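Supplementary Methods, section 5.1.

A reviewer requested that the exact input to the structure prediction be made available. We therefore reproduce it here, unchanged from the version used in the analyses.
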Amino acid sequence: VQLVESGGGLVQPGGSLRLSCAASGFSFSSYVMSWYRQAPGKERELVATISSGGGTTNYANSVKGRFTISRDNAKNTVFLQMNSLAPEDTAVYYCNAWLIKDYWGKGTLVTVSS
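The structure derived from this sequence is encoded token-by-token as follows.
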């Protein structure tokens, strides 16, 4: 099982990034997929979740209206489009797959700074 995040980097406040998470080794289309983040010195928090079929999404209040989670089950990939980024969005972003078991990626760093 592998979850490999990509797309992180340094961006200025107000900018955008699109994170990707490529999955392999399990039945991706059956799993609920989520993005979590962990800022320095803080606990890991749930950012966004998408149902197995993609029809239902949920967001943390802090990112609602700015971030969009989506998935492509044909390509075993989940995305997180992040707009209007702010310094408080700086964190390591992790991809998570959940059905009966939890799978985690190693994370990708997003730094929002001028």
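The chain has a mean pLDDT of 97. These observations are discussed further in the main text.
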